[in-house]
């Protein structure tokens, strides 16, 4: 009986979330004038949507120990439905998409994992982490051109948990795999710049990094006749490591 009640609550919250997204499409902070009964219903949907997101957050926090266990040991397929539920409750929970897609890929369901991370990107099109995850999957499959495209998409966005240094290293690996050694070297240098500058200045912003890269570009151009590929340094967040 208890399990049935829990399932019903989750289903109702999911339904509220779908209604909130499909019917309302407004946050609770939007100024609502002249909407009448629709606005009253919208407020209820906003409230239920907030409960839904909080429940997803609580599930993920509770699963944190299991998530860390997954990352350092053999994958446990029993965890997969749990993380699926989190992303259903809150499609904006990027970390849950990141964890479960990698888990599913490592369990041997490679295309399913790729499809799932693409679903995550539809809900979170500005997620650098999910593009990085997609690129890693393509790279492991030997699909280097597609991996390169995904890594470039990751580099063009504000970094999340995955640092810009790791993205530039992934770009370098792709260029090497494609036989483009010059661009591989440039990406390695760019990764080194990001790592060393942020190590020296943990709170460096993107303008500081850009200025430093530009100064190094001058010396690179004098020595090699071209400049460091710095697309991956468009935006740098001080939280990266």
Automatic annotation (TrEMBL):
Keyword terms, alphabetized: Repeat, TPR repeat
UniProt cross-references to PROSITE patterns, sorted A to Z: TPR (PS50005), TPR_REGION (PS50293)
SMART domains per record: TPR
Keyword Transcription regulation attributed: no
Family matches, as InterPro entries: TPR-like_helical_dom_sf (IPR011990), TPR_rpt (IPR019734), Ycf3/AcsC/BcsC/TPR_MFPF (IPR051685)
TPR repeats: 128-161
Statement: the UniProt record of this protein carries the keyword Secreted: no
Annotated protein name in UniProt: Uncharacterized protein
